[in-house]
Structures are given as structure tokens and as C-alpha cells.
Amino acid sequence: MVSKFFFIFFLAYYLEPHAVALYGLLTVTVSYSLYALGFDFYTYSTRELLGNVQDQWARLIRDQGVFFALTYILVLPLLALVFFFELLPWFLAPWFFMLVIVEHLSQELNRLLVAISKQLLASVILFLRSGLWAIIAVISFWLFPQTRSLEYALSAWVLGALISCIIGIVALSALERKNLKQSVDWKWIRRGIAVAVPFLIATLSIRGVFTIDRYWVKLIAGQEILASYVLFAGIANAVTSFLDAGVFVFLYPKIVSAFTRKDQKDFVSGMRSLLLQTVLIATLLSLAAAILVHPLLWWLGKDVYSQNVGILYVVLFAIVLYAISMVPHYGLYAMSKDRHIIFSHLVALPLFALSALVFTGFTSVYGIPLALCFVFLAILIYKAIVYQRCKSRLEWASS
């Protein structure tokens, strides 16, 4: 979180607002493309890993890798449409495709390590992929003026993700491999696709909110406001990154495992811990970000950012709502109540579009952040109600 927090500030300090805005658009477009590559197959494979004995893990991971190879062949050419439709300039195309590949591999390796209870190594990989390269880029910007460019920042990003991939692959190579002699289980892959497709559609919908918002801000408010939005959204998203690496990856496998064992006590205890830690940490980090941003904006010395700091407060509130909604989300995921998760995510994008149209009619600067708050509050309320209902039925059934 600290590295991401300061990286976006140094980027805004050393680069012009248009470069910051471009970085923001590239980042969310890469992030969105990962879902098309990954196909949300992890929603199926994670439960399969947790439900199988360890000597089967290498075979399942290999079969998952075969599936990803097919998605690469099909999806990567389609991603070129981003440049044909001029959503991003062509000079970013090589960086885009390199980032999409190494980011996806690193993300999937992180998830696999979490699933096989190597959370600490997974967090190290996440740090290499999301944090260490940013620190190196910042130091280079500070010491070597010739490195102060968007291209240098992107090269550091590619290198950090690539190193994380190498470490993850080495870690997985230690798994028992005797069952790799078995042929690829295409039936298992087809079953996984059937499970993952509804999740993919739902994920593309909710993650579309985190992508379209940048393009919408650019459309209605211009490049400079977009640069401010990118800066403040980057700070807010660091809160989510910290929760992912420091809370969710440690607790949700235990919750899934407890439900699989029908251990109601451990399940309820795990959900309570997840709620308390999420609320406490998200709130404290958001307050710290809201306070620390002011001396950093003074140091930045660019009016375009300090004049729009209110965007940060609204986006932080939206992120806190989103973080809390992940608590009932993981509870529903553990109980295999996938249709409720899918429904809440499916409605996210149309709900965001409608609310954005309403709010931007009143304010071009705060319309999109307010729409985020509305959408994440609606999702939180829905997931919380559904989770409580499902949990009460589970307790009744077990009694």
C-alpha cells in the first residue's frame, strides 16, 4: 500500500497530467483485460484444489494452464481492438500486451499459492507485482532525471511482474508431479468453463465499473480532472490492495475449508474475524490516506490536484463500501451460493451507468465518484441480506 501510495504521487510530481491520465487509462484497461484472459476460471479451480488431495494439485494446475493457453490464443488478438478503436494510442500497444500477459500469469500464480495455503509467498509475489517495482521506479525518478518517463515506469512494472511469475512457477514446481503422466482432463476443463462463464459475465460487469469510470471522467470533465481522478483513485485502490494481501488471502481459504468440513463454529468465527478486520483496517487506512494526502499535495505543488482533493474523500468512501461488501461475498462463495454473487455483479454496470447519468447531470467532477458510492452501497446491502438468509437456513438445517 505504501509503495502504491507514493508511486502515484511521484508519477504526478515528475510527469505532466496528460501522462498521468494515460497511465490511469492503461492501468484499468490492462486490469479489465485480465478477466477476459483468466475467464474467471479460478472460481472453479480454487474449490477443486481445496477439495482434492495434495498429490492431485500439480495435475489440476497443469490442466488449468492448458485452458489458459487456449484463452491466450483466442483473446489476445481481440484485445488489439483497444487500439483500433483508439481507446489507447498505438505506441502503448507493446507495453499493453506485455503487461497483460505477465500480470495475468502473476495473478493466477498468486491465487494458486493462496489456495494451497502458501499465503505468505503469495503476498511476496503480490508485493513484487504491485509494490517493489514502484519503489524502484520512484528511486530512479528521484536520482536519475533521464528515467522520468511513462515508458520507464511501464518497464519497471513489466519487470516486477515477470520476476513474480518466475518465483511463483519455481514454488509450484515443488508439488508432487507423479500424476502429471495422466492425460489432460478435458471433461474437467469443460465443466470448469460451464461454472466460470456466469462468473466471467458478472465479473466483466462489475469490473467494467472500475474501467468505464476513467473513460467517462475523461469524456465529461477533461484530461486534467482525469489526472486528478487517477491520482486519487490510485490512493483509494491501495486500501483494497492492502486488504487483499493482508486480510482476505489469509482468511477466506479458512472460511471455505470450514464450510467444506461442515464446521459451523469455525465458519462463523472466520466470518466474524473477516468482518471486524475488514471494517477496522479499511476505515483506518482511509482516514490515514485522507489526512496524509494534504502535506503530499502541498509537496506536489500542482493546483489541478489540490483543487480537486474532494474527489479522494468520495472515492475512499466508495472503496470502504466495496471492501465491506467482500465480507458477505466470501461467505456466499464458501457456501457455493454463486447465483447471488453473479446477480449482484451483473446489475453493477447498468446500475452504475444509470446513477452516473443522474449524478453527472448535477456535477461533472463528482458525478462518477458519487455513482461508485451508490453502486457499492447497493451491492453491500444486497449481499449482506442474502448472506444472512443463507446462513440462517444453514444453521437451521444443521440443528
Automatic annotation (TrEMBL):
GO terms for cellular component: plasma membrane. The chain crosses the membrane at residues 20-44, 65-85, 91-109, 121-144, 156-176, 188-210, 230-253, 274-299, 311-333, 340-359, 365-385. Its main location: membrane. It is found in: Cell membrane. It is a multi-pass membrane protein. Signal peptide: none annotated. Keywords: Cell membrane, Membrane, Transmembrane, Transmembrane helix. PANTHER family: O-ANTIGEN TRANSPORTER-RELATED, PST FAMILY PREDICTED COLANIC ACID TRANSPORTER. This is Polysaccharide biosynthesis protein C-terminal domain-containing protein.
